[in-house]
Amino acid sequence: MKYISGRLFLTAAVLLSMMITISCTKHESGSIKVGVAGAHSGDLASYGLPTVKAAELVVKDINARGGILGRKVELLVEDDVCKPEVATNTASKLLSQDVHVVLGHICSGATKAALGIYKESRTITMSPSATNPPLTQSGDYPNFFRTIASDDAQAKLEVDFALDILKLKRIAVLHDKGDYGKGLAEFARGFLEKSGKAEVVLYEGITPGAVDYSAVVQKIKNSGAGAVIYGGYHPEASKLVMLMRKKKMGTFFISDDGVKDVTFIKVAGEYAEGVYATGPMDVSKNPLAIAANDAHKKTYGSDPGAFFLNAYAAAQALLNAIEKGGSTEYKAVSNALRTEYVDTPLGKIKFDERGDAIGVGFSMYQVKNGEYVEVK
Q: Taking residues 86-95, what's their average pLDDT?
């Protein structure tokens, strides 16, 4: 019996060793699978589709040069419509396809909903646009990285601009009740109250997708606010601005990178003129940014959309980390992201211990003659 047990033990050990070898070989052979998750349809598709195109361009270039570690890179694109309840299914679907890393998600709420799933499976995830501070600052998601600064920096810029440049004393703060919009608005309110330079005369959340915002616009008017700082996305912002301008209100409208999008200008039309919005720093003179934008125009026949360069940089950073780490394994990729610099359209970047890109920030923009122009 001892002899038989020994043979059984030896056989089991050999089988286990073979299974581990096969598992590792499977994971480290074949194509390198990059998931691309975000809003690819619906009202916020203008935020998500540029990321798909950025990933396509980066992967096309890398595969033309032989791929990474001798392996071709494959994209797995999944739509989450920027909705948290959909994002969890999107994450599960990508993992079921044995994805190695994920570029996305786009909206902060959807990103947060999906991150727990990726964390459990030890999958590196990098967003070009999810700015909610707790995503990196809470320490809950060590698998998460981003190529955009967080909302506390964005809100501080908006408040400083309202106080020091526009010299305003009465400010209304609105938000769309979501992780992104409300989070930014809370930071803005906090910075305003701490400054002692202005009064928050109205703080209120609005319901996304509502047909009419007349009631809240009237509250803004009655408050005597010199400006509205709004945390949220362009569909609601365009409705607010149009109503305010139709009521002949001269109140400044200051918003975020969720509004710094050409779709906002198209929807709001002439009423968009003069609107301020923060967005990623202007890197238009960076040769790599010029090349990336030119590649988009040549391939797709149009100018890039929102977060295109941030997504381009994210795709480069992820694949560079796999190459420098010599593996698609979590620990190797995570370490390389934090230790290895990579040249991108945003500049030469790597990531801090929290997962935030070092050297990335925001600028203030204003709509002039139908386009966003950086405010110097």
A: 98
